[in-house]
Write a structure and sequence with these properties.
ten-stranded mixed beta sheet, alpha+beta, about 450 residues, seven-stranded antiparallel beta sheet, 14 helices, Conserved hypothetical protein from pyrococcus furiosus pfu- 392566-001, domain 2, globular
Length: about 450
């Protein structure tokens, strides 16, 4: 094993064998957005299906979550798995090549989000509460969301990731130096993404010199002594989940199950399901903006919901004139726990007087969960202020707007307080999410 590979292994990284579509593939139709986006907007996915009809596309290899309750799960999964085999056997996908992929994502909102496709070692990941692992969950994991995803992945031949993992690299020592070398790297794709989602360019990183320099930079950033000193904590960690928390938890679950079922087999610890393909991103990238994940409550009684909020002086409610005024107050609440709402034609603020969590996202989520356990309605998690507003103003619905999270305190908060409440933050709005391009054999 090369020295740089030993360093990568120590820090939970494997240089992956990545499969890309063969040359001359219509990449704008091949790449589709993460399956957990637009879950309350099936019209988005219908448009994607229309755009990709008759073309090789990752849309045929994923299960958009807006369809999870349609009752055809088994048929969809079987078709996904058979299509994966078809794409492999028919040469839609080129042979795997060993190396990282450096990628640049521009969106209509942000530019220059550089990422590095790599494989993370699931032996270094633990998504349980109070985890001490090198790779750390940053939001509470909803355990009931894992079994459906396991059924999708467990017999899949290919892994297609929408997972994004963060590093806290204020000195920009890991990914940014690679970006400076882009003109000397092999460009493997360069295309516009569908439905006005921006542009994506990828470069292969596989030269020994560059890999050695990358390993040295990683060792400098991730040494246990440096981490402990930087965060003033024995509980420091290197990799934080950004997007795809439940997808990585699913990969971990499958790997743990595989280990139990094949405990006596030689070569067990080299099985490809031990690793998960992810995009590594510096939290300080200029192309990353943390956005709140908002809530939309459907088919409920808004009047009763707000009466329940005010009961026992748990929350106080104040109306505002406009959406912009409400969002401004939510994002500048200081030490107060405040979220916003839209309902019919009204906007307003909800302030927690008796918080049940360290942040408003947890407090309001606890209330919503308790309320929906007793009364009619469902909740979904929405990316984007305008989308939440449009949903919230429909009859019988309520939109709940949450504040964004600070980059500067993100890692330290997870170290000091543990994972954020579930669905607290998002890296950008829905159209800025990761698109599926790369794949890796996992069986």
């Amino acid at each position: 094993m090369e020295k740089h590979e030993e360093i990568f292994k120590h820090y939970g990284i494997q240089i992956p064998d990545i499969m890309l579509p063969k040359k001359n593939t219509a990449m704008g139709k091949w790449a589709v957005i993460a399956c957990d986006q637009y879950t309350s907007q099936p019209e988005y996915w219908a448009s994607a299906a229309k755009l990709t009809a008759g073309y090789p596309s990752t849309l045929n290899l994923i299960f958009p979550e807006c369809y999870l309750d349609d009752g055809d799960e088994d048929e969809r999964i079987e078709l996904i798995n058979s299509t994966m085999l078809d794409y492999i056997n028919q040469g839609v996908l080129a042979d795997p090549e060993k190396g990282f992929i450096l990628l640049k994502r521009d969106t209509p909102k942000t530019k220059n989000r550089w990422g590095l496709m790599t494989a993370l070692d699931l032996e270094h990941y633990d998504f349980s509460k109070n985890s001490q692992s090198l790779i750390r969950a940053t939001e509470g994991t909803i355990l009931e969301r894992i079994p459906p995803r396991v059924r999708i992945r467990e017999n899949a031949r290919l892994e297609l990731p929408h997972i994004m993992v963060l590093i806290d690299d204020a000195e920009k020592s890991i990914i940014e130096p690679l970006a400076e070398l882009k003109d000397s790297l092999e460009k493997v794709y360069d295309f516009d993404l569908m439905m006005d989602s921006g542009h994506l360019t990828g470069y292969r990183v596989n030269s020994k010199e560059i890999l050695s320099n990358l390993a040295a930079a990683l060792e400098n950033l991730g040494s246990s002594d440096k981490l402990k000193k930087h965060y003033n904590s024995e509980n420091a960690f290197l990799f934080a989940m950004g997007d795809g928390n439940h997808s990585l938890a699913t990969a971990k679950t499958i790997w743990e199950n595989y280990k139990k079922e094949h405990a006596d087999e030689p070569g067990l610890m080299s099985h490809p399901s031990r690793w998960a393909l992810v995009e590594l991103v510096n939290i300080y990238s200029e192309g990353i903006e943390f956005e709140a994940i908002h809530r939309a409550i459907f088919e409920t009684n808004p009047e009763h919901f707000f009466e329940s909020l005010s009961k026992d002086n748990q929350f106080i409610i104040k109306t505002t004139k406009t959406l912009d005024e409400m969002i401004n107050e939510v994002n500048n609440a200081g030490d107060k726990q405040i979220c916003g709402y839209s309902c019919d034609s009204e906007y307003g603020l909800i302030e927690a007087l008796k918080p049940t969590s360290s942040i408003i996202a947890g407090t309001i989520q606890n209330f919503i969960d308790n309320y929906l356990d007793k009364y009619e309605g469902t909740v979904d998690y929405i990316h984007g202020v305008d989308i939440t507003d449009n949903i919230g103003r429909k009859p019988g619905n309520i939109g709940i707007f949450l504040p964004s999270i600070s980059k500067d305190t993100f890692f330290q908060t997870v170290i000091d307080d543990g994972a954020f409440p579930r669905k607290t933050f998002s890296m950008g709005e829905a159209f800025e999410k990761r698109f599926y391009v790369e794949s890796r054999l996992i069986k």
